[in-house]
Amino acid sequence: MSGNIDQKFVYDFTEGNRDLKDLLGGKGANLAEMTNLGLPVPPGFTITTEACKVYLESGSEPVELRDEVTAHLDALERQMGKKLGQADDPLLVSVRSGAKFSMPGMMDTVLNIGLSDESVAGLARQADNERFAWDSYRRLIQMFGKTVLGVDGELFEEALDEAKAAKKVASDTDLDAGDLKKVVKQFKKIVKAQTGRDFPQDPREQMDLAIEAVFNSWNTDRAKLYRRQERIPGDLGTAVNVCSMVFGNLGPDSGTGVAFTRDPASGHAGVYGDYLQNAQGEDVVAGIRNTVPLADLESIDKKSYDQLMHIMSTLETHYKDLCDIEFTIERGQLWMLQTRVGKRTAGAAFRIATQLVDQGLIDEAEALQRVTGAQLAQLMFPKFDENAKVEQIGRGIAASPGAAVGKAVFDSYTAVKWSRSGEKVILIRRETNPDDLDGMIAAEGILTSRGGKTSHAAVVARGMGKTCVCGAEELEVDTKRRRMTTADGQVVEEGDVVSIDGSTGKVYIGEVPVVPSPVVEYFEGRMHAGADDADELVAAVHRIMAYADRVRRLRVRANADNAEDALRARRFGAQGIGLCRTEHMFLGERRQYVERLILADTDAEREESLKALLPLQKQDFIELFEAMDGLPVTVRLLDPPLHEFLPDITELSVRVALAESRKEPHENDLRLLQAVHRLHEQNPMLGLRGVRLGLVIPGLFTMQVRAIAEAAAQRIDAKGDPRVEIMIPLVGTVQELEIVREEAEQVIAEVQAQTGVELKLALGTMIELPRAAVTAGQIAEAAEFFSFGTNDLTQTVWGFSRDDVEASFFTAYLEKGIFGVSPFETIDKDGVGALVRSAVQAGRATRPDIKLGVCGEHGGDPESVHFFHEVGLDYVSCSPFRIPVARLEAGRAAAEAKGSDSR
After folding, report:
1. DSSP state for residue 118 in the 8-state scheme
2. What is the pTM of this model?
3. Mind telling me which NCBIfam families this protein's record contains (predicted)?
4. What confidence tens digit (pLDDT) does each residue in 143-168 have?
5. SS3 content of the chain, % helix, strand, coil (to 5)
């Protein structure tokens, strides 16, 4: 297959630059950039990603590629004054992969191409070092055999170990030329036995096969898995870099190393890296031999050290960022083999960004782009001490980050009881339900053997900033016997101490020491006067957050259901409440009133139940409005199906049967059982819930609206400033909203008349059904605001039950590349996002001043926040703990959009 007639597939290092990463890959683009800067880069050329794409699509290289490679190889040979693999003075080259995004160790590299039985002697004479030549030849056969010919690498390692054992030495550097000749002979036998062919002696065949192997390495299992994990597109392809070899294994005056322009762990300036004398590049990363700190190079080879320090300063100033560098010293001559913007820890990212601002290398807008919400989240969660000794007993889904330690308990009652006695506990359940809320609040963390990242346990835990591990299926939870059994039969009894890591999903027996987060203490206004390093980190976070808040357009609200959560959210920077879930106010002791409401046979009984609930609801709202005084509070009327407030059908049936067999009184349980049967639904999440409840159960929504209105009036009387928005859930048609709105307005008018207080309560709806999104223009006629409930919208668009699908088949979907990420974590822009976009446009067309927000889990997801900025929402709402992340990402989205506009 051919490319375009004018398409160029090969670029010399002198022709490219760092802006051509799409075409030349990161490695090739940066080699070209360093060449342009006049740094000592071995000459070479890059085969483009476009050539790889043609190869992967057609199974063969572009027809033009061989001629282009030949032309560039000829030019390289003229420049070097020697030919590839010639017998007397051979030119040797490396063939290395280099995709746009760094994929360390995922794709293939072959060094020393051009060596053969004939040219190895010439290399020995050229270098005046026979051992070096044969060491380089054995490396070529080993790398080429494994990478290009598919020979099991263990066979080569075993042969090398046998040679060392025969010589009674520990390191391959102790093998002399004679030993290495025998190793080469053995390696060639392995190649012949495993492939049926001799190791290729033609240097051009070696190079062509290596180039093809690099192309193929783009689609190896490990490369595909890495791309899925890092969310790197699979259609980018890799470039191939052909570079003249320089040798770090020529003796003690040679070596190879890696360097960072500042510490990637802390961000502090200094000399960071590793160096290894008499070695080639793979020796450093393989860990076969112990390196020395880069600072030791000053005493080993001061000339090269000083030159390297100057180059590192040049590169950091040029790239305006931390640089990761690979280099080789060949008999005192320094060569630069690679540079890239270096990976760093979350803490280092914030420190480096502000340091570079102080140095005048970047401005605040660029500093904001150098950090991410994911990095900020890492800084906020406590972590286990990495140096501690641990005993892992299981692993589940990392549902809510953090590190939690406590005694194992298996029900909410015990969790609350022990917690009140001063015990730290971990609540362990098969899965949680709304009845477990008290226990979840009391616990340090939650562990379940079922469920995924959007299960009840996960969603509630994230909302509380509580550590949670879900779906640890290898752990068998027996709540009746109050124990948990591991896969190898170890039993964890109630009271045994366990530790769970919500960032990794790992579960440990015993107490693992926890390191607190100074960043959370900063956000909560109680940062301790700790180490200088912690203060410096907090100062960096503060500066970047302040700038993000100045530039962002999206406001950030909290999902909070009580005054305590609201106050914490406010400390974290919330600008209101975007979702108050009133169903959480109906649990615990209040459940009896809901049961009476469900069991009511007459209007009088129903009114009595509602009358009992009214003052309780009102007090909840008074406390909430006081906590958020002066800021908007969106209160969602009752949303979940009524069966969630009733006993489990199986347990209740057993209770009734036992009572009947013992002839004990059971009238109330019998009535409850009849109600449970009457309300039973095959799919309750798509049944009688949300606005449908308000229309079917007279007085339910009007009781809630009255409680809200009376609470608002009382706050105004107390000189408060409540800004209340009432949200009707699960609306699918404007007629539903119109009926509820009319009833609500009537109640509000009655409260105004009774109290003499003017109330301005906005009425709006959640857009969480596809039909609501499609008919948003009609619904906007009766709604003053929309809040997109993206959790349910994702369920109904995809036809997924979020409580079931993550545990059943999401893993397979992620592994097969159907998902890059769960649509419950990051919004599906093409499907769910398209509905959000069209609903925004339709809603604003009908009502230009309509307020638009989102209150699903996506409101705190970094990538989703950028999408919500793009489509023009006014605010996002998320759990209190994720507010700083949403603030940061809203700022990044605004800065990114401004940068795009200016370009």
Report:
1. T
2. 0.79
3. PRK05878.1, pyru_phos_dikin
4. 999 999 999 988 998 999 999 999 99
5. 50, 15, 30
